[in-house]
Every structure is written in structure tokens, then in C-alpha cells.
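Why do we bother with holo predictions? Because pocket geometry can differ from the apo form. Keep that in mind while you read this record for zinc ion.
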Amino acid sequence: MQLLLGNVNRFSKNFAKITGRKNKELIAILLHLVFRSCIISLVVQASIRILQAQGYKVTKPRRQVLEALDEAQKPLSPYDIQRLVGEQGKHLNHVTIYRILDLFGRLNLAHRVLSNGGFVKCSLGEKEGCHRFVVCRQCGAIQEFADKELCQEEDKFAEGLGFHTEYHLSESSGLCSDCYRKQLK
Ligand SMILES: [Zn+2]
Ligand SMILES: [Zn+2]
Ligand SMILES: [Zn+2]
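The structure, written out:
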């Protein structure tokens, strides 16, 4: 990190000489970029470790789909993923993308958002309980959560119906706090 900061510092000084912009401003911009790329790779790296631990190879297409999901600000359809990977000069066919998304879903690396059909990377890691979402119907903001006790309650309810539950799939649709406040005005 020290070396990295030294390089950033030197680079920004040279750049400032050429452009005449203030050093401080440039250091802030560069640090932001360095920091952002570190964060992105950490999330992808964590997913890669899970794949390997489960005995799956980290193929190029799997890594590309992970990166596309990681950089996305909203749920992605398989078509979106194909386009994003395509922008980097790589082609992935739909069957490959669906297979990868299916695998990521089984490993909790990514999830399908039920209300819009798109896929997002998991933000909870190995948190216990089924991973679910609250989705704002106004702005599209999504938040992931998991609650083991909620799962147990649902299991009990299903048991009353003589049913043995293996997995829960549900989603809440409504308004996020911002949209709800705006609506009250
Ligand atoms: Zn998750
Ligand atoms: Zn909202
Ligand atoms: Zn559950």
C-alpha cells in the first residue's frame, strides 16, 4: 500500500505539472479510483474462493460474469450480462450465461430478483437463513437480508400443513424509506 500511495503521489505530481491542476484534487481522484478497484477485486476474490472451496474451476466465463455482476448498479438480465462482457470484446452465449447464473445461485454467489427477473451478486456472504430482498417499486432500490428465525417460523407454518420445507423463496415489494417519505409530502 505504501508503494502504491508513493506511485499515486508521484503520478499526480507529474500530472499536475502538465495540467496545472492542484495536487490535492488529483490525489483525491486517484485514491478514489485505486480504492474502488481494490474493493471490486476483493468482492470478486471472495466469490472465487467460494467457487474453489466447493471444487469448481474458476473459468474465464465464470470470472467475467462475476465481474459484470460486481460492477452493476442494478439487477442484470442474461442479455445485459452478454452485452457487458461483449463490450470487453468477449462473447458468451446464453446457454453458458444461464448455466453460470444457475451455479452462482446454488452457491449463494448471486440471486435472482423475483419481481424483475434480473440477477444481482450476493451481498451477505454466508449469513444463515435464506437470502431475500426488499424491492422498491418506485426507484428500483433493492436490499438483501437473511433471517434464520423467519425461516424457522415459515417452516413451522408449513409443518402445520403437513409439508416439509427445504428452502424459502420470497420477496417484499413496496417503497424504500426515501420514496415513502416523498410520497407523504
Ligand atoms: Zn445472498
Ligand atoms: Zn425507492
Ligand atoms: Zn429459509
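The chain has seven helices and five strands.
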